[in-house]
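re: that complex we talked abt at group meeting.

here r the seqs, copy pasted straight from the sheet so there may be weird spacing, ignore it
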Amino acid sequence: MNETEPLLQATGLTRRFGGLTAVNGVSLELDQGEVLAVIGTNGAGKSTLINMLSGEIAASGGSIRFDGHDITDWAQPNRARAGVGRSYQRTTIFPEFSVFENCRLAAQANHPRAWRVWESAAQCGASVRAAHEALNATGLIDVARRQAGLLSHGAKRQLEIAMCLATRPKVLLLDEPLAGMGAEETERMLTLLGELRDSHAVLLVEHDMDAVFRIADRIIVMVNGEVIASDVPQRIRSNRDVQIAYLGEAD
Amino acid sequence: MISTSSRWWVPVLGAVVLALLPAVLSPYTQDLVVKITIYAVFALSLELLVGTTGLVSLGHAAFLGIGAYVTVLASGQSGAASIAWLLPAAVLAASAYALFVGALSLRTRGVYFIMVTLAFAQMAYFVFHDTKLGGGSDGIFLYSKPVLANWLDLDNKRHLYYTVFGALVFTYALLALIQRSRFGHALAGIRVNEQRMRAAGYPTTLYKLAAFVIAGALAGLAGFLLAVKDGTVNPELLSWHESGAVLLMLILGGMGHLRGAVIGAIAFTLLKEFFQSEALVGPLAAHWQMTLGFTIIAFVALLPKGLIGLGRAFSAPRAKRPVVPLEAEASHE
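got the structure back, here u go
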């Protein structure tokens, strides 16, 4: 990787759904060791942005570079194996599997060897270790053997992150990880995100403003698919455009 | 999730019983057991798609039929063909068609997938039904049954029985291995949540295609055995009735379990024999589709989890449910 090139770089990213432009010319840069928060009202295009970065939907325009490669045309599984990990706004787990298997299966994507049908999946040491690490990091190790679908909402949200971590990503694209969480769970998640920052690049879409201003190194504000401000938290707080567009204050 | 390890002795016991059966069976009953065993292989092949991967196909009989037709067509009329190349030919032909159908149909999902697999099966059906290739709607006879050197002659009922038995053991063991492997776990993950599997980095279409081809190959194996057992093939083997019947076997037995597929094949074939027998049901035998249909509806209504659900209902209290102590759960909340 080029010394000067950021880990993840999007340039002029655009997505149109028919006549609607959900994301319009968004550019961003993200490096290891920083948390970039993307905020904006509902329908501002935040989730669409994450979907494009993770490869879930194709971009209508613009380009994405990651870890020295142009990944604009890469399919989602290829991006994931290259190190682009994501979590979902709506919990997307394997409800009927154990918590452990949820993470182990996610980790197995990096060690597929699908043709070795004589080997038991439970003996796949690399994925077992990665799952243990992810469960330890997220504090879910005590409920590892429970059925994932029976977890509390907060624990499911943590599992969502754990499954993402189990794939050992370089960049984490987190879509509202705090949604529906209680105060205690939020605190725990923010601590975790703080720990993850050192070894990952984190892009965080979040509605909880207190959390965002506490954890983010930089903030991007989106309105109607466009970036209206991109700065450090203190300056975002005092930005006129943001106050008008986001907080709806026109005093 | 996948129940294979806990009561491994059940299938083993079943295999031992099946191996000893010929000693006590009449020729008619032995023939029936061979038929059921072949259908169990066929049902197991579909179970990999429906129960494990979550792909409901309504065209699985195409691979059975192609395996059967290739067996007869490749045998020719000049003496017994060797199993050594005839069986691989039948299996490869079925796999090749599965690769073709899978590559095109796996782009669709849900009910569209059902319709596309049905369409490809009907296409194969009409190729054999409307052309001279396989004798048209009457089908063709197998002139002489295949052999393997001097020690296996499938014209011999006993040899056929143990060959079919071996095919079932092989298929069951292979699928049990697959289910516990990384490949099988990935297929189960695709069944439950394909979106998440892609996000984790699995090329899910490739996995589904691999499952589709393996299922087609095993159905081709069943087709080979069926052609050899009956000594004749006709286009009905590829019809959607046959695809529907094998799906009913899975529903009847209980989806998501290998045992369910075997139990379903036994139950379906026996029920069909029963309702077709004039000696047992009298004039109703002429309307066996109706009586069989109502019986299956009753089964599904009373046993939504299939016949395998019966055994589970009785053994459930002994099962290890709460694996984690309650305080561990409480401390987390």
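couple things i noticed - Confidence is low (pLDDT under 50) at residues 318-333 of chain B. Chain B touches chain A at residues 1, 174, 177-178, 180-186, 188-189, 192-193, 195-204, 207, 210, 323-324, 328-329, 331-333 (CB under 8 Å).
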